[in-house]
Specification:
mainly beta, 2 strands, 0% helix, elongated
Length: 60
Amino acid sequence: MTLEPGRTVPPGRHVFAVQYHHAPGSRAGAGDAHAATATTTAGRRLAVTGTFRPAVSARG
């Protein structure tokens, strides 16, 4: 997602959620990844990246 020009996100801790569609049936998400970048009002660029962990069954 990209913010519209002039829009800002207030300082603090934020949680972002995304959803996508794929073909019916199971699929491995091992190759999926995420990335986020930000620029502070002072011009400092920040970035975070990672991968998704497999879901953990409640039964262990």
